[in-house]
Amino acid sequence: MKIGIIFAIEEELTAFKDLIKINNEYNIFDLKFYECEVNSIMCVFVQCGVGKVNAARTAQILIDNMKVDYIFNVGVAGGIDSTLKVGDIVIASKLVQHDFDVTPFNYQKGQIPNVGVFVECDEYLIKVAEKCLKEAKKGVIASGDIFVTEEWMSKKINKKFNALCCEMEGASIAQVCFLSHIPFLVIRSISDVPNNDNVVTYDEFVESSSALIAKGMLSIINNIKEV
């Protein structure tokens, strides 16, 4: 079995590297990939860079070149639901691209032709994650090429899609995996909650939130079985 793990930023990747022993590293299309073995499972992980295009590109490289069986996208996100606080973990039940808009052609906001509004995560991987992350909340994660800093925008996304948190990569990875028939899961640790100071909050908590989600990812790998 081979698992692919995609991180968006250096802090997220570094937190995971600190927990494992790297067996190999190499570059493909200017992306650095790392290999390790956890519980006899081969893992390939990479920093994709910020945004949906970077994330989707990286997911397709993992699928085409590494022949991964599962893809995880883990890291930090901004909480947009009033029940969340910094340090909480969210397991995605499904994902939506909140900035995708072809409504003039009689589609719903967020709806992607031939894909849908939401892309659902793999049920088995959700169950493993829930077992390992007992305090986590499960729900919709919204993605878009916007760092949401305004409270009005966070409320709008929360209300429209019933989303718990917002980030910039997960839903595009979900779309690639859906189209390529690869089981996937997105998990986020909350690093900030939108308000006038949430950029400052993000800077303060991004490392601790990354460390928290890295430990959770390692626990998940240790509990995955061949299915």
Describe this structure as you would to a colleague.
With 227 residues, the protein is an alpha/beta fold. It has one domain (2-223): Nucleoside phosphorylase domain (Rossmann fold), CATH 3.40.50. Helix content is 36%, strand content 30%. The chain has six helices and ten strands, in the order E-H-E-E-E-H-E-E-E-H-E-H-E-H-E-H. It has helices spanning 10-17, 52-66, 123-132, 151-161, 170-180, 198-223; strands at residues 2-7, 24-28, 31-38, 41-47, 70-79, 89-97, 119-120, 137-143, 163-167, 184-192. A five-stranded mixed β-barrel has the order 5-9-8-6-10, surrounded by five helices. Helix 1 (10-17) runs parallel beside helix 6, helix 2 (52-66) runs parallel beside helix 5 and helix 3 packs across helix 6. The longest helix is centred in the C-terminal third of the chain and has 26 residues, at 198-223. The chain is globular and about 50 Å long. The mean pLDDT is 92.
